[in-house]
Design a protein that fits this description.
alpha/beta; 5 helices; 203 residues; 6-stranded parallel beta sheet; Rossmann fold; binds pyrazine-2-carboxylic acid; binds zinc ion; single chain
């Protein structure tokens, strides 16, 4: 049985206003993602959530040669999910960015508490379509979407439920264009929720 799954990418305090690597308006993704997660859960479809989960010393951080200020350190408050994010019961957690030598942007670099990779989880659950929202459009959302396309999955990105860092102005728009070129569908949360409702009544 093949079908879609939803993944909420890195909706963590450090990427939201007040965090150490705040994405402008990052918290605006929370409301649409709560709606999407509730709709997937109600349809009996898998919901996954990734978190950036760095060791204190990592080549990802500026102090050790990387691009970024310290953020999402394992066990810190900044690494917690945004307090308003509502994860349905049974949401599968993936931790990534654990390797101190790597950036680990893609959720496909993450592992579950049991040590399974995202690819293994998706295969086990018969997922052939990944619906993606979260932070940040130009890093982890982009990397996750492009990896999923390379692995032959259909991909939808929820355009109202992503927000980007934009280190360079336009990075997020360029990331969306790159995802689109790779065959990613860009649509609104409302469109996806409506499709799920039609799917529910059709079966
Ligand atoms: C991310 C920058 C650094 C992300 C993670 O989640 O998109 N961006 N670490
Ligand atoms: Zn990071």
């Amino acid at each position: 049985m093949n079908g879609p799954a939803l993944i909420l990418v890195d909706v963590q305090n450090d990427f939201c206003p007040g965090g150490t690597l705040a994405v402008p308006d990052g918290d605006r993704v929370v409301a649409p993602l709560n709606r999407a997660a509730a709709a997937f859960a109600a349809a009996g479809l898998p919901v996954l959530a990734s978190r950036d989960w760095h060791p204190p010393h990592t080549a990802h951080f500026q102090a050790y040669g990387g691009l970024w200020p310290v953020h999402c350190v394992q066990g810190s408050a900044g690494a917690d999910f945004h307090p308003d994010l509502q994860l349905p019961a049974g949401t599968l957690l993936l931790s990534k960015g654990i390797d101190e030598r790597l950036d680990g942007y893609s959720a496909f670099d993450g592992i579950t508490a049991a040590g399974a990779t995202l690819a293994e989880v998706l295969a086990a659950q018969g997922v052939d379509h990944l619906v993606i929202g979260g932070l940040a459009t130009d890093y982890c959302v982009r990397a996750t979407a492009l990896d999923a396309r390379e692995r032959g999955l259909a991909v939808t990105v929820l355009i109202d439920a992503v927000a980007g860092v934009d280190l360079q102005p336009g990075d997020s728009d360029r990331a969306l264009a790159a995802m689109h070129r790779a065959g990613t569908r860009l649509c609104t949360t409302d469109e996806v929720v409506a499709e799920l409702a039609r799917r529910g009544t059709a079966t």
